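Let's study my pick:
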Amino acid sequence: MDAMITIGRLAKYAGVSIKTIRVYHDKGLLPEPDRDSSGYRRYTAQHAIDLIKIRTLAEAGVPLARIRELRAASDEGFREALHQVDTDLTARIRGLRETQRRLRGLAAGRLQMLPPEVAGHLERLPELGFSPRWVALETDLWILVFATHPDTAVELFHDQAQALTDPALRQMYLDYDRAHDLDPHDPRIDDLARRVVRATLERYGSADLPGQNTNSEIPALIQGAVNASSPAWRRLDALIRDQLSRT
């Protein structure tokens, strides 16, 4: 490296643009040298070293204002700050890897985003007589539950999976699936609502379903997604809620 270099060569050495160097000058991050007799600013090896440090911190996500503070910090303060930057960067990398895992799962198919046990259960639903519409809805809803409530999702899943081992409860779910295309005022909707309420009280001993006693808005969002696809399901849900509220 020459003893004195132009801004263009400095930019090349540090791997940044000339515009970036000028921004760093304006922000007070990199001292701006005086012009020589020819009117050009000439930079030294120290400028290049400082610029590379600034670029590294900026690429790690450190705000420019914070970099300016670090440039004025003591050696000990600078080391402590770098340790914190490293810790934060590690957490960001971990988060990005998790995001990448979810993206790859999404690209491979929705079932890849769920635990194998849940994916296997959903793949078996058609064998039990459930419609493709019901399986797709269940898949999307379990993706939502596992993404937002990972601590309770497994318990909720096991509760539903166990319910389907009971022939009477399984038939109730199947009837719920098939009610999708019924007229909202079909008498079968009223009958199904009564069966759901009775089964809920017998299974749980109260009107409270698993996962309902939380401060989360997710249960309401899930029920809203279910209701949105069918007027019959909307009326069914209204009847169930009304009857449970009076128990």
Observations:
- The mean pLDDT is 85.
